[in-house]
Amino acid sequence: MADPNGIFAGRFPSTRLRRSRRYEWSRNLAQEHRLSKHDLIWPLFVHDQSTAEPIASMPGIFRWPIADVVRQAQEACSLGIPAIAIFPATPPSHKTDDAREALNPENLVCRCVRAVKKAVGDQLGVICDVALDPYSSHGHDGLVRNGDVANDETVVVLCQQAVVQATAGCDIIAPSDMMDGRVGAIRQALDAHGFQHVMILAYAAKYASAFYGPFRDAVGSAHSLGSANKNSYQMNPANGLESLREVILDIDEGADWVMVKPGLPYLDIVYRVKASLGVPTFVYQVSGEYSMVAFAAQHGLIDRRRGALESLLAMKRAGADGILTYFAPEVANWLAEA
Ligand code: PBG
Predict the structure, then answer these.
(1) Does residue 3 have a pLDDT over 90?
(2) 3-state SS track over 237-283
(3) Mutual orientation of helices 182-192 and 241-253 as an angle, nearest 10°?
């Protein structure tokens, strides 16, 4: 057998792979991948109330008042976490068919971004989703026309939403809507308004996944969406190669970074994107993935810390450059102890 790298040159008993696993120091030396605090992006939920509210479907995760998000942004800075992603839980009274609250410069997410940026400046990256689902009465990421999510009409609104968020001080615009052509249009809109430096992290390969369940509960879009689904815009979980087309299109349209979402069930996609295209590749350990570990740990089935760290390390091994994870602050603390 051809063996240019000499992988098969050694044979038992002269080769014993257990030798390097014997001590912690030798395991450390031979370790191929490492998780670091610099890999972490911390998603935070904000609401327009004066106290924090626990999210039942995500044990340990809360909807926070703006002041608390600011406090946590400061904590992120002291923990060395590079960026946070802010998700608004919009009160139902502010949700409409046309999701117009998305364009209100005084909406919850804009006020939160301004408060965070005022406190932490350029020490911490702030990421905002571009999509209409936090603001739409039907729970879809775009405008609904004749029972369909209208692509091109939605893209026009997404561009305005991106500009509103960039004006509030957002550093990274993250389109999570999966409309065709939105990255290019958003890039143009940002540039036209003088936001050449604002980055785009495209949710490029975003699958129509059951694992978003707890998130939709957290931002209150589950109720709006009801029994509808997002299959006409989010990717079919059965497709692998198509993710490369999505990523290539987004990069071509001006995305700085791309994301695969969810994480653990889609590590093959992370691997393919990174190995074949070599672009900065991010992965989202989504709410359902978080809650599976959190609930299993609550029931004593798996160790929370080991379960979380192993999942995240697996994402690094697959090729992820950075990971959005609700475990972010805990992980930063665990890594600092280690
Ligand atoms: C909104 C959005 C979703 C998530 C991030 N942005 C939900 C969805 O597409 O329905 C999911 C994040 C998570 O589950 O943690 N477009």
Answers:
(1) no
(2) CCCCHHHHHHHHHHHHHCCCEEEEECCHHHHHHHHHHHHHHCCCEEE
(3) 20
8 A C-beta contact, residue 288 and residue 262: yes
How far is residue 6 CA from its own chain's centroid? Answer: 39
d(CA 180, CA 130): 14
Largest CA distance in the chain: 71
Any residues with Cβ below 6 Å from ligand 1, and which? 129, 131, 133, 141, 176, 212, 215-216, 230, 286-287
Let me know if 206 is a catalytic residue: yes
Element (H, E) at 145: strand 144-145
CA gap 6, 26 in Å, rounded: 22
Please give the structure tokens belonging to residue 129.
Answer: 């989703």
Q: What is the pLDDT of residue 222?
A: 85
Element holding 295 (H helix, E strand): helix 287-298
User: Does the pLDDT at position 338 exceed 90?
Assistant: no
Task: Please identify, by atom number, the ligand 1 atom nearest to the C-alpha of residue 131.
Answer: 16
Measured CA to CA, the distance from residue 316 to residue 216 in angstroms comes to 26
Give the span between the Cα atoms of 108 and 94, in whole angstroms. 10
Question: Residue 1 pLDDT more than 70?
Answer: no
Residue 287, pLDDT > 90, answer yes
**Two tokens, residue 337:** 């102890």
Tokens standing for 270?
A: 């992370």
Q: What domains sit in the chain, N to C, each tagged with a CATH number?
A: 35-337 (3.20.20.70)
Residue nearest to atom 7 of ligand 1 (CA): 212
